[in-house]
Design goal:
single chain; about 325 residues; alpha/beta; 10 strands; about 40% helix
Length: about 325
């Protein structure tokens, strides 16, 4: 498993101290360093017309200096001495700047609070969150602080991967993350649930009145599909566990949840039923646009849960956002 060595904690406005505390806990348990970073938009994109004696570049420099001082003061005020924390101010479009920072800085995890947006159509996760989950090459952790307390449970949603290398690597990354969270040094997760939602191909059509299949034949087909998925899920977890070092294998004992139905509804229902703190899942897209679009199923699931989420990309993913994005 790849250890977590560096975390970029991105703040849009003020630093939420409770959220920072959770990031510190993760860093403390993994030995990672933290960069608390924010973004200042470039002056030349904000000011269309300049006036005499008004230096927009100087204003940009003042904004950067102000944000740097503020972040430094907040971090010093927290008084953390056993975790290495530094601060950075990036310049550019926020999503472009953060993705470029992740790529250049070799960060292992991007963490942030969810962006709340007003408007006619509100989503649990804001547009910026979705853009980051689409484009960021490292795992993205969108963390919610739960005032009612934590259940210390995580749900990991995995997809059937027979003959699909991208899904296989995604499943491996998710299971590796779960194994690490269940290890002795990581205290924030006590129980993990590996969930897979299945349905028979064409099931909704075959059960409709107009095209209803013979009950006995349909029941047999569904029973066979359920057994195939159950055996696949058990074997996947068994093989992964056998690949772990002895110490990690001893602590890796997740519950397996085989769910019948559409993952868009079945996965969120399980998360709510368990009062899970975190949902881990892949964001594989079939858009053919180099990863510009998060998968429709993944986006629908993410907008139906109220917990923190961590999303993963398949091996070899390259961000569609170009480097040197500042203009």
């Amino acid at each position: 498993m790849n250890p977590i060595k560096s975390i970029l904690y991105y703040v849009e406005d003020e630093v939420d101290l409770a959220a920072l505390g959770h990031v510190v806990e993760i860093a403390r348990s993994t030995g990672a360093r933290i960069t608390v970073g924010t973004v200042v938009k470039p002056a030349h994109l904000q000011v269309l017309f300049t006036r005499d004696n008004f230096d927009v570049q100087e204003v940009e420099r003042l904004l950067i200096a102000h944000r740097e001082r503020h972040l430094d003061e907040v971090v010093r005020g927290v008084g953390i001495t056993d975790v290495m924390i530094d601060t950075r101010v990036f310049v550019g479009d926020p999503v472009y700047a953060i993705v470029e920072a992740v790529t250049k800085g070799d960060y292992d995890v991007l963490a942030k609070l969810p962006t709340h947006e007003d408007g006619f159509q509100q989503h649990i996760f804001g547009t910026m969150d979705m853009r980051l989950m689409r484009a960021c090459p490292c795992p993205v952790f969108i963390g919610r602080v739960k005032p009612t307390g934590y259940s210390e449970r995580i749900v990991a949603a995995i997809d059937y991967d027979e003959g699909d290398a991208s899904k296989t690597t995604l499943n491996e990354k998710i299971l590796e993350s779960i194994a690490h969270m269940l290890s002795d040094q990581f205290s924030m997760v006590k129980q993990a649930y590996i969930a897979h939602a299945w349905s028979l191909y064409g099931e909704s059509l075959l059960t409709a009145k107009a095209e209803k299949a013979p009950p006995a034949r349909l029941q047999k087909a569904m029973h066979q599909e359920e057994n195939k998925r159950r055996e696949w899920l058990a074997e996947l977890v068994k093989q992964f566990k056998s690949s772990l070092p002895a110490g990690d294998a001893e602590t890796f004992n997740p519950e397996l949840e085989l769910l019948h139905g559409d993952p868009v509804t079945a996965i969120p229902e399980l998360v709510h039923h368990l009062n899970a703190d975190v949902l881990a899942m892949g964001t594989l897209s079939r858009s053919g646009l180099g990863g510009m679009l998060i998968g429709n199923t993944a986006e629908a699931i993410l907008n139906r849960v109220n917990c923190s989420v961590v999303t993963f990309k398949p091996q070899g993913f390259e961000s569609p956002i170009p480097r040197h994005s500042r203009r």
